[in-house]
Amino acid sequence: RDDLVTGVQTCALPILEFGIYAQRASNTSVNNCRIFNVDRAFNYVESSGDILGNLVTANVHSIVTDRCTESLNIFRNRLFTSNVIQVENLRFFNCENIDFRNNLVINGYSGLVIELSETVNLINNVFTETDNFAIFLNKNDGVNIRNNAIVKNNVGILWDADSTLVQINNNFFTNNEHGNTLGITLDQTNSTTNISESIYNNANPFFEDIETYELREGASTLLIDKGHALYPDKYVDGSPSKGTVRSEEHTSELQSPDHLV
What we know:
With 261 residues, the protein is mainly beta. Helices cover 2% and strands 45% of the residues. It contains one helix and 22 strands. The protein has one helix at residues 197-202; strands at 4-6, 9-23, 28-31, 34-45, 49-52, 55-66, 72-75, 78-81, 90-93, 96-101, 104-106, 112-115, 118-123, 126-128, 133-138, 141-146, 149-151, 155-159, 164-169, 172-174, 181-182, 191-193. The longest helix has 6 residues, at 197-202. It is globular. It starts with a strand and ends in a 59-residue tail after the last helix.
């Protein structure tokens, strides 16, 4: 309870199953750490707290949460999996009250799977380079997907018919090879487009850098400030949006774009 881990670099040789394991732990904080060469970087069971500003390279899962029903805030992390066994990068199972904002989610068979969960916010994130679905929703009640960039995946969002009270607004979709959604039709608040692979990789009109996904100044309003009237968040130091600063912003060198490789 009330544990804080900050500024730690974890490299597991030989490979460990977990980087951070929390079970029935309340108000934990893991801030500005680097975790790599583990199968699961974060494994939270019936736990709550903050996961802020971390750099993760996992072999299988960046984050798995199970029966976490208190507040869990996951902000400003770079979450990459090498996807060695073709499963989801992140999984929220049977959880409530997860706030997932300003994260960069890269790779995985799916980027994020949410199952049997309630009151989950996905706001101002980037989901990219997943082999199957960027986001898979299965039997949930109350998921808010707003102001995300869902780019260069196989499919953007798969929505199971048993999920209810799902809001998908003010998101940007581009270059998702086999479609932006399955099981749901996007409303007019969302923006969709496609550009050639050559332009995407070499002269991207939306992102300054397709490693960090920082937004290009003066880019189309398809991205910048989209939805910010309701959610005035800010991605900083290599994260992909513009806006106003939240009080929990961190400035560790681990968030510098030079480290996001």
